[in-house]
Amino acid sequence: MSHTITIKCNGCGACVKMCPADAISGEKDKLHLISADLCINCGVCGKICPEAAINDELGAVCLRMKKSAWPKPRFDLKKCVACINCIETCPVGSIGFTGRTLPKDPHNYPCLENEKTCIGCSFCALECPVDAIAMFSAPIKAAS
Q1: Rounded CA gap, 143 and 103, in Å?
Q2: How far is CA 51 from the centre of its chain?
Q3: For the structural domain made of 69-136, what CATH number should be given?
Q4: How far apart, in Å, are the Cα atoms of 31 and each of 11, 37, 50, 62, 67?
């Protein structure tokens, strides 16, 4: 199953702009559709939708999140085996190499190269064979 768009959709197009798989289509101000064949279930459409018009693959309504609260990967380089699964699985190319190695270690390790493009899908953490990646959200600040 893929994510789906409900009749709450106002056709704003925010989801279309963010979808890394180009799985969403529709005309401005009209109900949009998600192609089940193209959807990769990254969830970015639901995080960005201002109308809560996206259901996840289980049918639950996705809730909008501020981009600053989207989870980001943190890498434990002591566990990392430099397999590059995380780099290859990132649908938006946010993960790259650090460009440096650790003392007495010839490996180049992954890092979040472009935090602004990261969509918080967690694919990198799910694909890590040694659990060297954990997803963390920025702390939510209390209203003043």
Answers
A1: 44
A2: 19
A3: 3.30.70.20
A4: 5, 19, 14, 17, 24
Neighbours of 24 (CB within 10 A): 23
**Domain 1-64: which CATH class?**
alpha beta
**Pairing outcome for strands 33-34 and 24-25:** antiparallel
Is residue 45 within 8 Å of residue 51, measured between CB atoms? Answer: no
Any bridge partners for residue 72, and if so which?
Answer: 136
Q: Would you say the CATH fold of 69-136 matches that of 1-64?
A: yes
Q: Please, how many CA atoms are within 13 Å of residue 9, restricted to the half-sphere of its CB?
A: 25
- CA dist., res. 121 & res. 92, Å (int): 10
Phi, psi (rounded to 5 degrees) for 126: -65, -30
Residue-wise pLDDT tens digits, 39-97: 999 999 999 999 999 999 999 999 999 999 999 999 998 899 889 999 999 999 999 98
- CA dihedral sign, ordered 94, 107, 88, 129: negative
Q: Domain ranges in the chain?
A: 1-64, 69-136
Contact 56, 3 (CB under 8 A): yes
